[in-house]
Amino acid sequence: MPGDGMIDGKKCTGCGHAYLGDVEICSRCGNSELHPVKYSGKGTVYSFTINYVPPLHLKDEAPYVVGLVDLEEGPRITVRLDLPTSELKIGKEVLLEEKTSTGLVFS
Amino acid sequence: MNGTVTMRSVSIIGIGSTRFGKLTGRTIKDLAVEAAVKAIADARVPREKIGCLFFGNFLSGVFTGQEVLAPLLANELGLRSAECAKVEGACASSAIGVRLAYLMIGAGYHDMALVAGAEKMTEASADTATTAISAATDSTTEGICGMTFPSFWALVMQRHMYEYGTTREQVGMVSVKNRANGVFNDIAQFRKPVSLEEVISARPISDPVLKFDCCPVTDGAAALVLCATELAREFSDCPIEIIGSANALGPVRACDFTDLTTFPGTVEAAGKAYSMAGIGPADIDVVELHDCFTMAEIVDSEDLGFFPKGKGGEALEQGLSSMGGRIPINPSGGLLSKGHPTGATGCAQIFEIVRQLRGVHPNQVKNARTGLTHNAGGTGTVTTVHIMRRLD
Questions:
Q1: What is the spatial distance between Cα B158 and Cα B148, in angstroms, rounded to a whole number?
Q2: pLDDT category of residue B6 using cuts at 50, 70 and 90
Q3: Which terminus of chain B, N or C, has fewer Cβ atoms within 10 Å?
Q4: Helix, strand or coil, per DSSP, at residue A107
Q5: Helix (H, G, I), strand (E, B) or coil at B278
Q6: How many structural domains compose chain A?
Q7: What's the pLDDT score for residue B234?
Q8: How far is CA A44 from the centre of its chain?
Q9: What confidence category does residue B191 fall into, taking pLDDT thresholds of 50, 70 and 90?
Q10: Long-range Cβ contacts of B268-271 (<8 Å, 24+ apart)
Q11: Residues of B in contact with A47 (CB under 8 A)
Q12: What is the mean pLDDT of residues B364-384?
């Protein structure tokens, strides 16, 4: 169910900055020791847009919503938002809904 | 090395450009040749004096199937003694070429350089163009999610409106102003004005970015001849000296901006260029900045120091960046009117500023003596600022 999904990431052992996915080096402090972490999939919307002119690989999906989500644990990630237009709002709390081959979907 | 190393002064002595637009039947090679021949003729220099050639281009392989552009152009022009290279930094490609030529001449390695930029985009389908241009995002993370360039600027716009109360109308006024300027530009793609009503009721591309918030795809080329200032007077009655030149890094991904309403690459490049020139934003008479989208002009006008952060929309509404305003921005019509042949834009912006500083621009800013160009690649991930002044 939504919110149960876990997202893989890495956290810098030096400065503590949190990243999404597999990162080899901390771009903030240059440290190459990062340990794996799991993010809960809870976050808030930082910004969003409804895209009507998609790239080829998402041709059949348009219009769709691209959003920037600030995860509870720190990282900001780029996702698609599965929300009705009336609920699209900066600051809206969202949960991970699905991991797809074209990225994460939150709602 | 902080930009304070002793360098020879460098000036621009020749400029050339094709018309911008949908140039059916033209190839990227013949567009580049046309611009370069015009620039060399304008500079009145013998070809054998040109020691190096940098060619700015973003996507010629995808759009035209043609690569090796720099040696291709050098051969066409018969520049037998020029070393050459293509430079790619997305939409900032040819301004980076200008900076490299500036460094080569400044360091004394060559006396004279040709910089060209070209792109041939209009023969590709809209799908191919959208997908190809999206290659300047981080394609494996954000591109895959469906983020396009209009989407990126929509995210910025949404956030700027949220944080500073910038209005939809203010953002639209960028398009109205630049299209009004473009009417006078003999080489612009669009020479028809638009009304605010048309801009804000246009079809959505990536909401809230609508059709007239986006620059078009364009064919075109521009070229410049740079020369050591100590030799420039031999060839030119009105050399335009480069007094500031900087190139800086910004994030590639939207999610890596700490604050999506300010562009670190623009702030840093502008800071370095102002410091080199020993002047500030208040000393600039005319600006050509990277208005690939309406929102970009508002953010850039703040990041370049012309208006306080968050006040760009208000300043525009008050006419401060219009012709006759405190600091005219994009009197050429900008990318929104002139068009944006990505690889050519950096050279094309400098072409416009040189016309202003020579006092021969079709949309002339009165008494312009010092000008600035701002050319941003991708999401501002590579950003170049040049400051130029009239030498007399």
A1: 15
A2: confident
A3: N
A4: coil
A5: coil
A6: 1
A7: 95
A8: 10
A9: very high
A10: B268/B383, B269/B374, B269/B383, B269/B384, B269/B385, B270/B246, B270/B303, B270/B304, B270/B305, B270/B374, B270/B385, B271/B246
A11: 155-156, 158-159, 162, 254, 260
A12: 97
For an interface test with A, which of B139, B141, B145, B155 has the most A Cβ atoms less than 10 Å from its Cβ? B145
Domain ranges of chain B: 10-124+216-390
Q: Does residue A2 lie within any of the structural domains?
A: no
B340 is catalytic: yes
Active site residue B361: no
Domain membership of residue A52 (yes or no) is: yes
ipTM of the complex: 0.94
Cα B285 from Cα B282, distance rounded (Å): 8
Helix H or strand E encompassing B102: helix B93-106
A71, pLDDT greater than 70: yes
H and E: helices and strands count for chain A:
0, 8
CA atoms of B345 and B91, how far apart (whole Å): 7
| Residues 238 through 257 of chain B touching chain A, CB cutoff 8 Å | 253-256
A78 and B151 within 8 Å at the Cβ level: the answer is: no
Residue whose tokens read 């991904």? B253
Higher pLDDT, A19 or A88: A88
Q: Does A100 touch chain B (CB under 8 A)?
A: no
CATH assignment of B10-124+216-390?
3.40.47.10
CB contact under 8 Å between B253 and A21, yes or no, is no
Range of the domain at A19: 7-106
Name residues 6-35 of chain A within 8 A of B (Cβ). Answer: 20-21
CATH number at residue A38: 2.40.50.840
Q: Is B158 on the interface with A (CB under 8 A)?
A: yes
Q: Which of B135, B115, B139 is nearest to B124 (CA)?
A: B135
